[in-house]
Each structure stands twice: as C-alpha cells, then as structure tokens.
C-alpha cells in the first residue's frame, strides 16, 4: 500500500542517452519543422509524427494528417507555398492507413479529394470518426495519382502494421513513404509498432528495399531515413527472430508446469515469459546505444513476444503433436 506524499513518487529508471544519430532537427517556435525532401516534395515533423506534401501549380497534395501536428500542417503548407510561389489550397489528402494517430487531423482540410485503400474506407466507415472522413477515391492494388505535373504511386502489398497500410512511392522524388514499419534510428514501439499482421510486418522492409529511393519517411520521430537505416532495422528484427528460435529450443517448460499444476495458464505464462526474456536479453544488450530506446525493456520485450507468438502460431514453430 502506498500513501499519498513524497514516497508515492514512482521510481523511474535511467536509460542511456538517445544516440545523436537518432535525433532530428530542432523545431520552430510553433513546434514543427518543415523541409524539402526533393524538388517539390516536403516533409513536416513535430519530432514524434511525420507528414508530407507535394506543392504543385495545381494545389497541394497532403500525405497523412497526424493530429499532433494538426494546425501546424496548415502553417507548414502556407510557409512553403508562399516561398515556392504556388497555391496553398490543399486539393488532395492521401491516407497511408486508417489509424487516428496519422489521420485524425484530416477534417481540418474540409472538402478535399481523399484517397485511400478500399480497406481504409471500410475501416473508417466502421470507426465512424468525424475527424477522419472516408476516402472518396479508393483502390485495391495500386493507384497512380498525378496532380499539377507531380506523380505518386500508391501500392497495396497486403496487411502488415494494419490491414490497410500502403506503400507511397514518389518515383520522381527518389522517396518512399511507408508508415509505422521502420522508426528511423529507434526501436519499434510496443509489439512491433502495435502491428496486427506479424509476418506482413516482418517482410515489409524487404518489400520497401525493392523500390528505388534514397529518402524514407517512416511516419514517426524526427528524422528522414536512408537505406542504411532500414538495413539496421532489418538486422535488429532478424536478431530477435534468431534469438527467439534459440530460446524456444533451449528453455525447458517442465519446471513451470510442475510448479503450477492445474493452474495451466500460470504455467503457460511462466514459460512464455521465460522464453521471451531469454530471447530479448541479448538483443537489448547488442542494440543499447545503437537504436534509441533499445534499453527500455518493455519495447524490445513485447516486440520479441509478438515475434515468438508468430513463430508458434503462424509458422507452427515449437508445436508438438500428441502421439
Ligand atoms: Zn498505425
């Protein structure tokens, strides 16, 4: 029992400093940073979320509208279009996926043409959130959007982080936007960036690398990515996969089931926690100081748990058939 007062303050652990390589540029007084990616493609960040836009002679095409950036999207668009001497009217808004943390400021742009995958439309109809109007234009496999002489390719490769998450390729701007898969310079947040389809999430960086690009927009934190950043993420994930297989082969479940007897779930939980911790420990030590927040135990541990469960449930690993 804790009592109110000085000793009710939580005991907070220390972590290693965020590597310099993981930190983005400073924000302006309004709390955002906007810069050219290439030619007339620009990106905006508040340090935690990212958005992008094409500034064309026929209007602005916005890619995602995270509510944390919110009104600063308008400010960033106004700032850039004034400098570029093109109209500041947002005519199109592309949804990467239906999640509110990337789309919840969509309503700020009123009556624009919204474009998204058919599954994004279905999920937004389900969610019935006035902040995220359903897309007017949908596609199943791919869609080429051309506005004011600028071209972008929207491609669906199946479920990954979410059922509807798409690849946004700017072939004329040497850029790929793929949200909530790779956090540049950082480990994924809990459970592989809260991903719903683990095999789809694991293969997404490989698909991303098949495209031609130099600049990568991952949707989170304050930096633009390069191909080396995606390779580092792939190594971190591959190490977790390897370590998970090793832990499944080496941790003996017997003591957990012996100890808890008819409380089957206590035995299962004890065993799975032991496998997860054994698999995560070497990865946490290897990446501490390399990827930011690798030493925050819950992050690598829950990501390892998701991968372990996918090895068991999707791949059939560690299953024993009763004789
Ligand atoms: Zn998401």
From TrEMBL:
Gene Ontology molecular-function annotations? hydrolase activity
Q: Which UniProt keywords apply?
A: Hydrolase
Write down the SMART domains for this protein, in alphabetical order.
Lactamase_B (SM00849)
Question: Matching SUPFAM superfamilies, A to Z?
Answer: Metallo-hydrolase/oxidoreductase (SSF56281)
Keyword Transit peptide in annotation: no
Limits of the Metallo-beta-lactamase domain:
48-220
The record's InterPro entries line, in alphabetical order, gives: Metallo-B-lactamas (IPR001279), NDM-1-like (IPR050855), RibonucZ/Hydroxyglut_hydro (IPR036866)
> Is Thylakoid among the key words of this record?
no
This chain belongs to the protein called Glyoxylase-like metal-dependent hydrolase (Beta-lactamase superfamily II)
Q: Which organism is it from?
A: Kribbella steppae
